[in-house]
Amino acid sequence: MTPAARVQTSIELLDAIAEAARHQGAPADRILADWFRANRFAGSKDRRAIRELVYAAIRACGPLPESGRAAMLRLAETDPAIRPLFDGSQYGPAPIQPGEVVAEGGVAPAWVVERLVSAGIDDVEAKVLLDRAPLDLRVNTLKAERASLVLPVDAEPTQAPNGLRIAAGTQVEPWPAYREGLVEIQDTGSQLACLAVGAQPGETIVDLCAGGGGKTLALVAAMDNLGVLIACDTERARLSKLGPRAERAGATNVDTRLLDPGREMEALGEFEGRADAVLVDAPCSGTGTWRRNPEARWRLTPDMLDRLIETQALILDNAVRLLRPGGRLIYVVCSLLDGEGPDQFDALLARHPQLSSQPLALPAGRERAKGIRLTPHHDSTDGFFIARAGLAC
Q: Residue 393: is its pLDDT beyond 90?
């Protein structure tokens, strides 16, 4: 493909991504993967170039762009190599016309920026949310130790006790160390959230929003496969990924539970009042993960945020029911918005006076109200709010 053809293809893909964002359709990475699968004529260099163009254009736009062409024109204003490629060639984009619509730049839609500012995220912090994320690994202590693990690439220790950082874009899945379960891909911030649980061998722990099980496996390793870990989720497809991952990691004390939304306690009744710890890694806006999913900025709406905050509160109330006297609840969101973080945690404590906030001592992050906040700029992790509460004996 010519450079101009790559730009035109990227414009068409951006149209599809923007349309999907408007209607909560497929994410950008899936749209790209489907296009690459259906268009085998695009070689590896073409695919790499197109992917980089698409994501650079997404990051260059704050609000949802009117079109893929408008998004690419925004990128052309910051990358002088792109503008000449609007050359009208056979497979390239049409020449730029005077007065064409150019997408708006910025970090995010204005209403989201306002909420970030009110949460203490200044312009410097906000801009880093659109950088490319590093690639972090967690050494699985059921099978290996960080100090003695040998990998095929250079790796630097992170703030997490078992964390390693390697070059972004490294293909980890083919490594023997990955296939044999010695390492898992997991952001350092996510690893620190697991550290906040303080999981101990022999405990009963509930991971109430387990998803694909990344945090579940970290907790199992901390428990040394002793005790019981109940991994729960309301989506069968996500939870089904945990079984093969647990087998690869050598995790043997995981019990999975598929929950019916609105009737979650029906599947967890036997654990009511019995859990030593409950981890609530709640569904959220994902503002802390924009480096990985920059088009998520285009999907979030005020109504959606309100629904997420309501869902978080319901999940937290269920978590309280599962705690034994003296047990602990750990609340985690990959969001930098106060409504999902400090305000949500304060509301939990107000609804349940039998809970009290517990201090956290993590190797990264800064205090935010009664919890700890991690940010890409300050901590070189995804953005997280992490807080812990204990139930009175």
A: no
b/e burial code for range 104-126 (CB count within 10 A of at least 16 → b): bebbbbeebbebbeebebeeebb
Angle at 223 between CA 196 and CA 318, to 5 degrees: 60
Per-residue pLDDT of 230-254, as tens digits, reads: 999 999 999 999 999 999 999 999 9
Round to whole Å and give the CA distance between 327 and 349: 15
Q: How far is CA 284 from the centre of its chain?
A: 10
Q: Please state the domain extents for the chain.
A: 3-106, 188-391
From CA 73, how far away is CA 20, in angstroms rounded?
20
Judged by phi (left if over 0) then psi (alpha if -120 to 50, else beta), residue 300 lies in beta
Residue 148 corresponds to which tokens in the numbers above? 């003695």
Token representation of residue 331: 């609340």
Residue 147, SS3? coil
The pLDDT of residue 262 is 85
Backbone angles phi, psi at 255, to 5 degrees: -120, 115
Pairing of strands 371-374, 384-391: antiparallel
Token couple for 104 = 């708006």
Phi and psi at residue 259, in whole multiples of 5°? -100, 145
Please state which CATH class domain 188-391 belongs to.
alpha beta
- 284 catalytic? Reply is no
Using CA atoms, how far apart are residues 312 and 283, in angstroms rounded to an integer?
7
Residue spans of alpha helices (H) in 79-187: 110-118, 123-128, 176-179
Cα of first residue to Cα of last residue in the chain, in angstroms, is 67
Considering the candidates 61, 232, 334, 393, report the single residue annotated as catalytic: 334
Q: Write b or e for each residue in 245-277: b if 16 or more Cβ atoms lie within 10 A of its Cβ, otherwise e.
A: bbebbbbebbebbebeeeebeeebeebeeebbb
Considering only CA atoms, give the Rg of the chain. 22
Q: What is the DSSP letter of 218?
A: H
Q: pLDDT tens for residues 309-325?
A: 999 999 999 999 999 99
CB of 61 within 8 A of CB of 14?
no
Q: Alpha-carbon distance 228 to 200, whole Å?
A: 11
Average pLDDT over all residues of the chain: 95
